[in-house]
Amino acid sequence: MRQKLVVGNWKMHGSRAQVRQLIEGVATGSAGLSNVEIAVGPTFLHIGLAAEICAGKGADHLKLAAQNLSAEPQGAFTGEVSAPMLAEYGVNYVIVGHSERREIFAETNQVVAAKFKAAQASGLIPILCVGESLAQRQAGTSAEVVLMQLNAVIEAAGIAALQSAVLAYEPLWAIGTGKTASKEQAQEIHRVLREHIAKSNTAIAQSIRILYGGSVKAANATELFSQADIDGGLVGGASLKAEEFVSICKSAD
Ligand code: PGA
Fold first, then answer.
1. CA dihedral defined by 235, 232, 23, 42, rounded to 10 degrees?
2. Could you give the number of structural domains in the chain?
3. Which of 48, 100, 161, 240 gives 20 to 30 Å between its CA and that of 11?
């Protein structure tokens, strides 16, 4: 039985005061939930603060997720943050291959795979995002696109690396648009991903968690999370409001 996981991707949002308010709200609201695993994903700058607030609240059920990392462990890479640095701050998960990184920051499949490996080398669990554009969906190539993105990482890191990783299916046309994939559309791609992994390793296919991301909100979380191959959510906009995010977590509990 896979434990559901809900991760808040705060993107480039939040002041110190907002981080405090949000974490306190999520910590309190989710205190009684025992089945779902929950992670919050502030900016690099706010990770230390978030860890302090969680510790102060005794909220050790809240995990920390980073939104990105460098593929390099250290060195002359101005503006970058490495996996060992994140690990030292108690970060558990790190998002790799988010479509905003792929599109805006031109991260290739090779870069994504290198970041995936760097995360695991420091004991972080990568959340590997895959997803197709609207044009690709309309062309009927959604499955092909996500499998190509997944294969790039399998080729670089090996199938066994998926044992300590999370996948997230995030169709680009659903991110930040308010337009969610239907539960059938999401389930279909999740099934394709899991069946693909099963061809190489059935145990990993059964245990790996595949999150859905793209306009997840309180109103659609329950129907998405009730699909056979959907193991939780990667939540952007709706993770910035404590009440809404807690309600999504409850749907996964
Ligand atoms: P959204 O973002 O929930 O605001 O659509 C999801 C994501 O980008 O991870």
1. -50
2. 1
3. 161
Q: Would you place residue 173 in the very low, low, confident or very high pLDDT band (cuts 50, 70, 90)?
A: very high
Closest CA to 170 of 50, 7, 4: 7
Give the residue, out of 5, 6, 7, 9, with the most ligand 1 atoms within 8 A of its beta carbon, to mutate for a pocket test: 9
What is residue 126's three-state secondary structure?
Answer: strand
Q: How far is CA 83 from CA 75, 90, 123, in A?
A: 12, 11, 8
Tell me which of 98, 100, 132, 190 is the catalytic residue: 98
Question: Which atom of ligand 1 is closest in space to residue 217's alpha carbon?
Answer: 3
| Per-residue pLDDT tens over the stretch 223-250 | 999 999 999 999 999 999 999 999 999 9
Q: What letter represents residue 153's amino acid?
A: V
